[in-house]
Automatic annotation (TrEMBL):
The gene is Rassf3. One of its GO terms (biological process) is signal transduction. This is RASF3 protein. Keywords: Cytoplasm, Cytoskeleton, Metal-binding, Microtubule, Phosphoprotein, Zinc, Zinc-finger. It comes from Rhynochetos jubatus. Residues 71-161 form the Ras-associating domain. The keyword Metal-binding applies. The lineage of its organism: Eukaryota, Metazoa, Chordata, Craniata, Vertebrata. GO terms for cellular component: cytoplasm; microtubule.
């Protein structure tokens, strides 16, 4: 069950607490993605973000897979379900910067304002999700929760329908989306026509066997 949870208050840690938590974090890591504490107090590490995008994204590269529609040098396509990306970030990086880095890594041309980063937590046999504000720091959340993704994971989604910033979409993007919808509609129409044609053939064959003239 995916339920919305109230945002938890941010608890600031002292330098000594950060150091202790990083040591504890690194001792529990099983995938070698450890955190590093720098002399200036800033620490770096890795987060994994699952991409849960329902709408097609627009990329600059022509080397994409899936259902596509082309417009000049841009391609709109659906990202495969369950795609997970790993980012190396610092404790100073904000949610907005993480979103921008993810889109840049995928060569996505869409406006970052179309997307939101969520945290997903598992507690008491329920799954809680909470949209993170642009100013929150994902690596801090990762450090506090520990390395286990079942305790905390990050998900990139589009804004909810009522929150979509339609002005962020360009005319070529909207035309690409319409082209994809037209293509899918035509594909579904052809499937239906073939299905009913097969039914018709079987019915006519059955009628021919039952009713014979003369």
């Amino acid at each position: 069950k995916d339920v919305q949870k109230e945002r938890e208050p941010h608890v600031y840690l002292s330098k000594e607490e950060v150091k202790e938590k990083i040591q504890s974090y690194n001792s529990s890591v099983t995938d070698k993605l450890k955190m590093t504490l720098n002399a200036n107090g800033i620490y770096t590490g890795f987060i994994k973000v699952q991409m849960e995008l329902c709408r097609p994204i627009t990329v600059q590269s022509s080397q994409s897979q899936g259902r596509c529609a082309h417009s000049n040098n841009e391609t709109a396509f659906y990202l495969p379900d369950g795609c997970v990306n790993t980012l190396h970030i610092s404790s100073t990086n904000t949610v907005r910067e993480v979103i921008e880095a993810l889109l840049k890594k995928f060569f996505v041309a869409d406006n970052p304002a179309k997307f939101a980063l969520y945290k997903r937590c598992h507690k008491e046999d329920q799954v809680y999700t909470c949209k993170l504000s642009d100013r929150e720091h994902p690596l801090y959340l990762r450090l506090v929760a520990g390395p286990r993704t079942e305790m905390l994971s990050f998900v990139l989604r589009e804004h909810e329908t009522g929150e979509v910033m339609w002005e962020a979409f360009s005319i070529p993007e909207l035309k690409n989306f319409l082209r994809i919808l037209d293509k899918e509609e035509n594909e579904q129409l052809q499937i239906l026509k073939k299905r009913y044609a097969a039914y018709r053939d079987k019915l006519e064959e059955a009628l021919g066997g039952v009713w014979k003239p003369g």
